[in-house]
TrEMBL record:
Molecular function, one GO term: ATP binding
Entry protein name: DEAD/DEAH box helicase
Record domain Helicase ATP-binding: where: 229-381
Entries under Pfam families matching the protein: DUF3427, DUF8090, Helicase_C, PLDc_2, ResIII
PROSITE patterns: HELICASE_ATP_BIND_1, HELICASE_CTER
Residue ranges occupied by any Helicase C-terminal domain in the UniProt entry: 432-578
Lineage of origin: Bacteria, Bacillati, Bacillota, Bacilli, Lactobacillales
Amino acid sequence: MDLLETALKRAFINKLVPSDTLNPKFIINNPKKKDFLLTTVQSDLDKCQSFVISVAFITQSGLNAIKVQLADLEQRGIKGRILTSTYLGFNQPEVFESLMRIPNVDIRISEKEGFHAKGYLFDMGDYQSFIIGSSNLTMAALKQNYEWNVKLTSYDNGEMITTIQEHLENEWRTAVPLTDDWLTKFKKSYRPIINSQIIRQEKTILAEEDSVYITPNKMQKAALSSLKDLRETGASKGLVISATGTGKTYLAALDVASYEPKRMLFIVHREQILKKAMASFKKVIGGKDSDYGILSGNSKETEAKYLFATIQTISKDNYQELLGKSAFDYILIDEVHKAGAETYQKVIEYFTPDFLLGMTATPERTDGFNVFELFDYNVAYEIRLQEALEEDILCPFHYFGVTDYEKNGLLINETSELKYLVNQERIDFLINKIDYYGCSGNQAKGLVFCSRKEEAKELSLLFNQRGIPSAYLSGDDKLDVRESEIEKLEQGQIHYIFTVDIFNEGIDIPKVNQVIMLRNTESSIIFIQQLGRGLRKDESKDFVTVIDFIGNYRNNYMIPMALSGDHSRNKNNLRRDTIDASYISGLSAINFEKIAKERIFSSIDQAKLDSMVELKRNFYLLKNRLNRVPYLLDFEEAGSVDPLLIAGKTKTFYQFLEKLGETEGNISDEESQALRFVSSELLSGIRPHELLILANFLKTKKEELTIKQIEALFVEQSIFYTQDILESSLKVLDLSFYESGLRKRYLPSQMFTFESEKLVITNNLKTYLENPYFEKLLGDSVLTGLKKAENYEITQPLNLYKKYRRKDALRQLNMIFNQNEQGIGGYTSSNNHFTIFVTLDKGKDFKASLMAYEDEFLDERTFRWFTKAPRTLNSKEVKDIRDLDDLHIHLFIKRKYTNKDNETDFYYMGEMKPIKESITQKQKATSDGKMKNVVEIDFKLGTAVESNMYEFLTKVVEEKRS
C-alpha cells in the first residue's frame, strides 16, 4: 500500500495500522517532555526544498528561533516566503526590519481585514507537509503556550493542499511587498492598538525595578529558608551561589531584613555597584535615608546603620580602627570568589560579625583559592543557569553558534595571526552575521569578547570606521574610564564595547542585549560568565542575542558542555547536546549553523575527555567543595563527571583513589574484585532491584533473605516488579545470569548464592564486610546506582532512547546470556525476544567485520537491516522473524563517529515488526572478494524516532578531520 495512503488509514480509519512518518500529527507544546512545535518547524525547514509561512503575528524572538535554519537553507540555494500582517498593531517595526535582513525569504504584508492565519507549508520534493493551527511565529507560541496544531502531508495533486496553495497564491498576489518605502511609512503611522497585556504575554519583563514592594521569587524563598535553617544550626558563615542576574542583591537584602542586624556591612569591589546595591536595600528594608551610607574613595559615611563599602577602602587600617572589630553583626561580601586577595583576607580576619554571608556566581576557582573552605563549607543555596531559566528569573537568550570567517580553506584558530583576524573581509563577514542575527529592538548594546588585546583594539577602530560606534576596554583602563564607556553603551551613544576578559564577572549592565564571542572557549565557567553578562532582565529588551563565532578551536567541545550543564564528559552526550538543544528551558533557544556543528563534532572527536588529568582535576574541584574525599555518590549528586566513567577508568573507584593517593583505607584484591562486579554490572542503575537487595543486606546485617522477604522489600519501597524481574535479579546476584567467561572472573569473589528459595551471603562477603572501608565503598556504589536508577521508568524493562550495553539489554529482558558480548555481535534471541544491535557509521577504516553491512534508517519509522553471513531465507533467525508473530524484536543503535570512540552503550529505539514482503536474500562481497548470502529485512518501528534523535543518529559528518 502507498505510504501516504497507509498514513491516512492509520490516522482516520484504524490507529493500529502500522505506518511511517507521513502520519498526521497533533502537536501540543509539552515543556516537561521537551516536546515543542518549534522542533517540528525547525526539522521541516532543514529538510524542505521551499516553504511558505503565513502568520498574523511575528516577534523577533520567534523569528530568531528559525534564523539558523534559514541561513543553512540559503547556503543550499533554497528560498521561501513569509506572509504576515499589521493586524491589531502586534507586529512592531523592528520585526519588519529583521525580516528584511533575511536574504533568501520574500516578505509580503496582507491588507486583508482581520488577517489571523497561522500556517506553515513545506515542499519536501516527493510530498508536501503543512502545519495549521493556533501558533503564530512567536517564541511563546512555538515553545511554551498551550496551542493546538495539526501536521498533515499530501502529494502535489491532493485536493486539500491544492486548495491551500491556490488560496495562498491569491493572498500573495494581493499582498504588499515589504520594502524600505513601506517600512518608512509604517514607522510613521505605527500605533500598537492591541491590548498591552497581550503583548506582555509575548515578553518576559521583570518589573522589579518599578515595584513599590519587593517580594521574593520561588528560588529566593527557598534560599531565605535555607539561610535561616543554617543559622539555627549555629553556623556563623554561609555561601550563596547564584547565577548572574538572578537577584542575589535582593536576596541579600531580604535576608538582612529577616535577620534585623544592629549594623550591617556590604562589601563590593566597585563603587558603581555600591550605589545600586544600596538602592535595592532601601527598597526592601525601608527606613530613613540616614540609615544608609557609603564608604569609598569618594564618600565617608561611616556612621550608617547599613554601610556599603568598597574593599579598597574598608581594608585600610585607619577605617578598620575607626569602625572597630565588633562594629557589625552581619557582613556580606559580593563576588566573594575574589576573597583570596590580601585585601579581602585582611577584612575577614579583622571584623567579628555574628554572621558572614558570601555571594558568587562562580565558586569554582582556577587560582587555587578555596571559597568553600572560607565559609566552612556551608553552601546555603545554589541557583544555577538552567534552574534560573526554568523559573523565569533570567532574561531569555537566543544563542547562535555560527562558523567564523574562512578563506582558502583556512579557518580562525588559536594561533591565527592578527592581520588575519582584523582584515577587511573578516570585518565584512562579522558585521553581516551580527546584522543578520540582530538583537531585541535592533538597537545593539553589545559586549564583544575577543581573544587578545590587539584584536579587540583594532576591531573597535574598524567598527568605528564602518559607522558603528564602538569602544575598547582592557584591564589597563582605570575604573572611571570603564564606567564612562559603560554609561555610553547604556545611553546608546556607542553600540559595542570590545574587551578581553575584564567583563567576565563583577559587572552589571542590564541593558546589554547582545553578547558576541570572538574567542576560544577556555572553560565552561568563563563561557557562562560571559553569556551571563546579558541575562539580567530589563524593560528595554525582550531577549538577549548571543552570537558565538566558532573557529577551528580545540576546546569547542566545551560549548555544548557549558550550555547543557552536562559535565559527564561522555562524547556521545555532547554530540547529542549539539544537535538536540531541547534541554534549554523557557523561551530561550540554542541553534548551531551546520558548519559550526561540524567544528564542534571535530573538537569532540579529538578531545581526551576521560583523561586521568581531567578526572583528577574534577576530583579535586569537588574535594575542595566538600572538604573531604568525594565518593561516587558525591559526583552523581553534584552533576559532575559521570561516576560510571570514573569507576570504569580503573575498573573500580578504589583503584582510582589509589592512583590519586586518596584512599582512606585498604582493601584486598578479592574485595576489589567484588567491587568490580558491582561497578561494572549494577552501578548504571538501569534496574534498582539488585541494588535494593544489596542495600538491605548492608543495612540489616542479615545473612539471608527469602523470596517472600525480597518481595516484601520491593512492596515496602514501592518498587514495581514482576516474577521475571525477581528471578532475573536473583540470577544476576548469584552470577548464574552471566556467560561462563564473565562468571569465571567474578566467582572467586562471589557475594551471594541462591539455595532453598533463599538468597544467602557467601563466606566471602561475610569476610569482606569485616573491613569497614570495603563496606563504605560498596555502600557508596549501591547508593550511586540507586540514584541513577531514578532516571529510568522501571515499569518498562527498556526505556526509549536510554543507553544499554548488550548484556544490560539481555538482563532487562530476562534473556539468556550464554556468550560474551562480542560473541553476541549483531543480534541474539531467547525467551521470545530478539535483540538487534547496530553500529551506524563505523568509520572509513572499520576492520572489525569481514563484510560491509549497510544497516540504515530509511526514515524515522523504517529501518533496513542485514543478517550475518552466510544466511538464507531458510536460516532459523530469518524464519523466526518472518513466521513468529508474537516475537518481540528490539532495536538498539550505537553511533560511532571515529575509530577512537570506545562507546559500548546502545540507544534503545523500541520494538519493531518486519515488513514481510521486504525480506530478500542477497549476495554481498566480503573483504577478500568472495560472495556470501545475507538476508535483507525492512522493519517498522512501533514508535517513530524523535526528530532530534533521528538527526543525531543519521547525521553525516562531513568536516575535514584537521
